[in-house]
Write a structure and sequence with these properties.
Elements (H helix, E strand, L loop, with lengths): L1 H21 L5 H53 L19 E2 L17 E4 L5 E3 L4 E8 L5 E6 L5 E7 L1 E2 L6 E2 L4 E4 L10 E7 L8 H7 L5
Antiparallel strand pairs: 1-2, 2-10, 3-9, 4-5, 4-8, 5-6, 6-10, 7-9
Length: 221
């Protein structure tokens, strides 16, 4: 009898041990919770990164759209001054948007003490004058028969003279970009009416025909 009880007790103990091995440990629950919390944190961080990337992409798209609009506006502006190419590669433009060609380079006569050293562009008083190229302003002053004169020095040393101006909107030492407004048409000095007398002097020396210089830059005055 005792032997049977012993065997029964051993069987119960074995069954209990088996159940203990099969059942989940009471200490496993926190580990499962930690793993689930970790996955949630990873998902939240991933969502944050995706949102940040979407915001950066949206910002880049807005900047690209703004640049495209600015380029369209720039292209239209440059076209007013005779340039119809890529706005990023513009080097030279015409000095004004609206004009009539008048006295040319090399003329002689009672209107000039010597040969006419520039090209005249007739226009209404106050018509804006722009920088034909990027450079530095080296003079803004009254210069006898030239009237109010602005001299723009280009990177290669070429001087561009704007004469007979009504006023100037730049100062000596100022750096200007191509097509920046620098003054306006006038009739100061030895002048018979409102016009721009434009001179081009390579290396600051003797003048050359401005029309040839502009045409060499691909423009059609």
């Amino acid at each position: 009898m005792s032997s049977m009880l012993q065997r029964a007790g051993m069987a119960v103990a074995a069954a209990a041990a088996a159940l203990a091995l099969a059942a989940p440990s009471a200490h496993a629950a926190p580990e499962v919770t930690v793993r689930e919390d970790g996955r949630q944190l990873e998902a939240i961080e991933l969502a944050r990164q995706v949102a940040e990337r979407q915001q950066r992409l949206a910002s880049l798209n807005r900047r690209a759209d703004a640049r495209d609009r600015a380029l369209v506006g720039r292209k239209e502006l440059l076209a007013r001054y005779g340039y119809r190419g890529d706005p990023d590669t513009v080097r030279v433009v015409l000095p004004m948007a609206s004009y009539d060609i008048s006295a040319g380079f090399g003329l002689t006569g009672p209107l000039w003490e010597a040969e006419h050293g520039g090209q005249d562009f007739s226009a209404g008083a106050g018509e804006p004058l722009v920088a034909v190229a990027g450079g530095v302003v080296t003079e803004v002053a009254y210069a006898g028969p030239y009237g109010l004169r602005t001299i723009l020095e280009l990177p290669d040393g070429t001087e561009v003279w704007y004469c007979h101006q009504t006023d100037a909107t730049v100062a000596v030492g100022q750096r200007v970009e191509v097509a920046d407004v620098i003054g306006s048409v006038g009739s100061t000095g030895n002048s018979t009416g409102p016009h721009l007398h434009l001179e081009v002097r390579p290396a600051g020396g003797s003048p050359v025909d401005p029309m040839d210089w502009l045409r060499a830059a691909g423009l059609t005055p």
